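Discussion board: Methods & Data

I've been asked by a reviewer to show the raw model output for two of the constructs in my manuscript, not just the figures. I'm not sure how much to include, so I'm pasting the format here to get opinions. Each protein appears as its amino acid sequence followed by a line of discrete structure tokens. Is this the kind of thing reviewers expect to see in a supplement, or should I convert it first? Here is construct A:
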Amino acid sequence: MIITTGEHHAPAAVKRAAALAAKSGCRYVPRNRASMARLAELHPGEDILVILEGGARLHRPGEQPMNFHPSMSFVRAKRLFKGEQDTMLEAAGVKPGDTIIDCTAGLGSDSIVFSLGAGPKGRVIAMEDSLPLWALLSEGLTYYESGLQPFDEALRRIEPRLGHHLGQLELMPDQSADIVYFDPMFRDPVLESASISPLRAFANDSRLEEAAIAEACRVARRAVILKEKIGSGEFERLGFRVLGRSRSKITYGVITP
């Protein structure tokens, strides 16, 4: 993957692009007024991350460009600010000050809601093993501005980590988090929305491993949560107890270590 800036690059964008390239091990390529088509010609087959003022945009040849956007998390956040409940937070039993690990972060929609639920004294770690998605997520969490300060503060508190969740969980101490969460649903084409569908080109579509659930149970103090499609067989395969009934095609399962 190469990292560059928009056509009208500012010094701050260049600095961000160079810093992200150094952190990720990718190459920073000055834009030099080249079109995206020209950059693709000069760097055939490579993903291109464009640093923008309010986040970043990800390009892959033959795929729809993807900007960082909080998607439904912003709608869910506004409901929380009105005092309404969020089904995911209720299912996970999130409390202010909790440490939460989102093992399948994608573009962070659930991580953002977890950050709101855990509050300023909480901690949310968002794991993502796709380098392009991690880079897009990192820039978005740091620079996206919604115009709603409490929401933006929740974004800034999230810690995006690059790597597969199994390997990262194996490195964590016993009972070092309150909740460990898995949501592989954005990889399911049956349930994809228009905003989620572009993730498929970049995401790891492997199903969850039993070893990952075992590690999650070791790390979690209170609960391991899985969001899945009803009738998929994943709850039974991985040992989760389904939490109630849902009118939706998806629901939540729990393991209490």
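Construct B, same format:
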Amino acid sequence: MGAHSSEASAKAAALIESLAWLGRYQGQTIVVKFGGNAMVNDELKRAFAEDMVYLRQVGVRPVVVHGGGPQISAELARRGIPGEFRGGLRVTSPEALEVVRDVLTTRVGPEIAALINEHGSLAQAVSGETDGLFSGTRRGTVVDGEEVDLGLVGEVTSVDPATVLAIIEAGQIPVVSTIASEAGRAGQTLNVNADSAAASLAVALGAAKLVILTDVAGLYRDWPNRDSLVSAIDAEELRALIPSLESGMIPKMEACLEAVDGGVPQAAIIDGRVLHAILLEAFTTEGSGTEVISKKEQS
């Protein structure tokens, strides 16, 4: 048996291994939060687009939700607008909000859609403020026991998924930017956390899974001990663990909890620094990263 045939056999075995996954998710919606390194590295971006196309071609209904932290920070700096973070959240002045909207809806979303559309007319970029998709209320945060005003920052309080559903029904992949209309204030928009917005959308769509791309291998029970990577955790155990987590991981794990609490059977954070991370997650029995499940799902 030559090298070629053993390689081909390995590929065939991988496809067979994916059958159970495909059987489970065929016709189901999977919401993928795109961010971190995968968002700024051209090779990773292209591989991500290919993964979305692949899922769509095998009958899964992917929905992409994105923020744009690195691009927003770069554009604020370019325009000389101060960028400030409090408690891990971007303080958003009216001036900064214009940049956030501009970068998300005219640059990042269309760029992801264009990469997907290199494979056919498959993706459509949509802003979270379109047709009341995301509606939100302002939120502050607490830093060292003090309440801090974050400006035009909100949390999603309601989702009207009609626009996204129409794109899915048309056989396309929605690419959603995380801007919300402020509830009760016509014309005012808010910057919302993309992890949390992805969770809210997954709940509203009745998604089978939420997947959040990040820049670590997964959740570590005892960081920086590399052997403490958690491959699966139930919602109750995660809830107890959250206060002890590293600050950057908290919004991601809170989003996973929000999704599972809202009825999404599974939520996962996976390492977006790995080429084709989504397919690796799909096509290996042990998956990758950390999967959050409800107790119900486990039993």
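Answer (T.O., handling editor elsewhere):
This is acceptable in a supplement if you add a one-line summary per construct. For B, something like: The first helix runs from residue 3 to 17.
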